[in-house]
């Protein structure tokens, strides 16, 4: 019995699909299409597509109109603004349909509502940007790694950057961070262990960042086939945590070492808390401390209690800060002087709920102040006769008194200085930091400060000094004036500058000697190889005429070696910058000279050399550097020649304005510039597997050319050859 088949009509299709005629009017459509684009008149047959589909984008209209001329299926994503103002995204698939005679009868269009997908994608991208979180995926089978856009942004690499496992690991900061990520990756591959850790990386721009690195392995048949995870920038958060921890550690250490007591008083609950330093400071045992306001009042000297309570009430009322000094009485009768500072804290309604403050023992300071007052006359004698510049300075910066040493350093008489302030003679660039420290002194945040600064001598010259400023307080602990000690270090600073200049000169000479060492190693090796090869030929040759020819070549090679040694002697004499040693050099002569130096090597490899350089062309250069550059290019062309063709070297030079362009071309193995272009002139970079490759020649070449105010560029194709374009200044 024959099997009956039934063709599903457009109307019955389970997807949103429609057919249009050549006028873009509906022939028929599926039920899902009707549901997606519901109109008051559900009969859309014969109506224009643009009347049925709301707010069709102008670009999409052009795509539909041009679809008749394209046989392939067209897929487009378009945003439509609906009549109610909302946005919808649709994915359209468009393909022409043909009649039985092959002519195009219209279009078949399918539609998918992708609004939710697009919105989810937009939300995901926004979340990634806010959280600075990216993803990564490593395929262990193909050894390829993918970084998301955010991950590349965190690493500060271009969006077209293609990472690998090795380069990815090398972004981690060398040391414990790189070792840890290596260990975590190994454990994931071997044991299937996930990781979620915080490490530091060094971005492509050299910036150190803290990141959260999370990784998960995927196994198939007991083998790790994939690693994937997230990568998040947590630098600000991590550095804040580290800074807070350091501040807390320093604060704890400072309060312990300085014996500073910290207290907190809850006004509503009448609860007073002391840190460990408060108990010995007030001479109270922890077991006897009741933890309330009365516990503190009981320690205050009776003569100071009323004043302290008034200051406390004023602080609670918000009239003034609680900054005071008072005496306390220890249980054994000992009297101590205490300095107190406190701040207030309010609730959401603005009511003060607690005070937090510090106490420290200033008994010695107070006693010292008393002793200082008693010895004031003695101080004045020392002040005047001191070998160090000294001054008494008022709080507004004016000089109250100066000694003879300071007058001598600054070139002013005592009378002239007393008519000035220290601001008048301070270098403008140093005034801000001096005033800032002085303000901290006035605010009671520090007791003294020291800094290096510059004064103007009366003659206008600069005087370098080390300034030490100490606050002088009266019996009540208030600052009355300052004592400034001014040590003239001008001679020391000038000597230091000379020392730095000498070190810079020494560094420059060391760089020149290092460059000389590279040239000697590279150039003499070529001459040595050439002489060794010619000597071997001489021993093997039987004919007299051939021997004489080889002997002549050996003589030429010896002369070239002697000339190179003489040029190297010139390099030794370069002790500063090479740019100051440039001379007029005939380009044709030096190219021919290098060709002659390696004639044996050229003959051995059957190299064809074509040199086209006008005899009159001269460049500004250093003979030894040019010899080294050309020798390196010649030997590289021979070393990396193709075994499939006769080696050819073509050298030509042209003059354009003030510059000479030397083109050095060969037909050798070539270089993959997409892979090696960025590191072509790097030190110890090699691009072919050759036993003599050291990775130093092109590095030296580039540096020598740039030392002569020139530049080098390269064009190359694999197995086709390489062109080095050298630009030098014309003589």
From TrEMBL:
It comes from Arenibacter algicola. Its EC number is 2.7.13.3. It catalyses: ATP + protein L-histidine = ADP + protein N-phospho-L-histidine. Residues 247-319, 375-445 form the PAS domain. Keywords: Kinase, Phosphoprotein, Transferase. InterPro entries: HATPase_C_sf (IPR036890), HATPase_dom (IPR003594), His_kinase_dom (IPR005467), PAC (IPR001610), PAS (IPR000014), PAS-assoc_C (IPR000700), PAS-like_dom_sf (IPR035965), PAS_4 (IPR013656). It is an enzyme of class 2 (transferase). Residues 68-126, 322-374, 449-501 form the PAC domain. This is histidine kinase. CDD domains: PAS. Residues 519-731 form the Histidine kinase domain. It holds the Pfam family PAS_3.
């Amino acid at each position: 019995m024959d099997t009956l088949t039934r063709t599903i009509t457009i109307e019955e299709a389970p997807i949103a699909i429609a057919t249009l005629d050549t006028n873009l009017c509906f022939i028929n459509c599926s039920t899902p299409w009707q549901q997606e684009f519901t109109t008051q008149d559900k009969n859309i047959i014969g109506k224009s597509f643009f009347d049925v589909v709301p707010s069709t984008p102008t670009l999409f209209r052009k795509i539909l109109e041009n679809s008749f001329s394209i046989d392939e299926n067209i897929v487009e994503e378009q945003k439509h603004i609906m009549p109610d103002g909302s946005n919808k995204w649709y994915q359209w698939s468009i393909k022409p349909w043909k009649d039985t005679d092959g002519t195009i009868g219209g279009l078949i269009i399918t539609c998918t509502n992708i609004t939710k997908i697009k919105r989810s994608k937009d939300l995901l991208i926004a979340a990634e940007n806010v959280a600075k979180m990216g993803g990564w995926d490593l395929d262990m089978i193909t050894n390829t790694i993918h970084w998301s856009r955010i991950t590349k942004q965190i690493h500060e690499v271009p969006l077209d950057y293609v990472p690998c496992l090795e380069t990815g690991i090398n972004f981690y900061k060398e040391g414990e961070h790189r070792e840890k990520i290596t260990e975590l990756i190994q454990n994931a591959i071997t044991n299937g262990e996930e990781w979620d850790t915080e490490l530091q990386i060094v971005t492509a721009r050299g910036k150190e960042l803290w990141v959260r690195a999370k990784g998960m392995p995927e196994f198939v048949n007991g083998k790790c086939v994939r690693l994937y995870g997230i990568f998040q920038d947590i630098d600000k958060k991590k550095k804040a945590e580290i800074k807070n921890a350091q501040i807390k550690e320093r604060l704890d250490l400072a309060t312990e070492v300085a014996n500073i007591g910290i207290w907190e008083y809850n006004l509503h609950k009448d609860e007073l808390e002391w840190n460990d330093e408060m108990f010995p400071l007030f001479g109270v045992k922890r077991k006897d401390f009741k933890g309330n306001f009365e516990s503190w009042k009981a320690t205050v000297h009776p003569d100071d209690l009323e004043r302290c309570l008034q200051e406390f009430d004023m602080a609670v009322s918000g009239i003034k800060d609680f900054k005071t000094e008072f005496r306390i009485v220890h249980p054994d009768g000992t009297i101590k002087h205490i300095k107190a500072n406190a701040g207030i804290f309010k609730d959401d309604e603005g009511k003060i709920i607690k005070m937090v403050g510090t106490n420290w023992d200033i008994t010695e300071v107070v006693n010292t102040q008393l002793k200082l007052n008693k010895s004031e006359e003695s101080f004045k004698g020392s002040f005047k006769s001191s070998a160090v510049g000294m001054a008494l300075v008022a709080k507004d910066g004016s000089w109250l008194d100066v000694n003879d040493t300071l007058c001598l350093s600054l070139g002013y008489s005592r009378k002239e200085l007393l008519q000035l302030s220290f601001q008048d003679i301070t270098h403008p660039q140093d005034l801000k930091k001096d005033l800032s420290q002085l303000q901290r002194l006035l605010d009671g945040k520090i007791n003294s400060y020291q800094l290096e600064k510059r004064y103007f001598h009366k003659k206008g010259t600069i005087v370098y000094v080390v300034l030490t400023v100490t606050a002088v307080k009266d019996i009540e602990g208030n600052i009355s004036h300052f004592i400034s000690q001014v040590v003239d270090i001008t001679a020391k600073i000038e000597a230091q500058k000379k020392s730095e200049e000498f070190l810079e000169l020494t560094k420059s000479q060391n760089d020149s000697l290092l460059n000389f060492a590279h040239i000697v190693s590279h150039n003499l090796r070529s001459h040595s190889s050439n002489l060794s090869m010619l000597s071997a030929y001489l021993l093997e040759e039987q004919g007299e005429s051939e021997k004489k020819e080889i002997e002549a070549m050996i003589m030429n090679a010896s002369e070239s070696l002697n000339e190179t040694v003489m040029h190297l002697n010139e390099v030794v004499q370069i002790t500063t910058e090479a740019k100051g040693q440039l001379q007029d050099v005939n380009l044709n002569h030096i190219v021919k000279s290098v060709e002659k130096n390696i004639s044996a090597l050229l003959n051995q490899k059957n190299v064809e050399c074509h040199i086209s350089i006008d005899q009159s062309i001269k460049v500004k250069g250093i003979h030894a550097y040019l010899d080294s550059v050309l020798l390196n290019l010649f030997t590289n062309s021979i070393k990396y020649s193709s075994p499939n063709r006769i080696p050819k070297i073509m050298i030509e030079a042209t003059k354009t304005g003030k510059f000479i362009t030397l083109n050095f071309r060969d037909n050798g193995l070539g270089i993959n510039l997409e892979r090696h272009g960025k590191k072509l002139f790097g030190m110890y970079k090699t691009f072919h597997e050759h036993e003599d490759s050291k990775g130093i020649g092109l590095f030296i070449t580039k540096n020598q050319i740039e030392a002569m105010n020139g530049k080098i560029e390269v064009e190359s194709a694999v197995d086709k050859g390489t062109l080095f374009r050298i630009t030098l200044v014309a003589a």
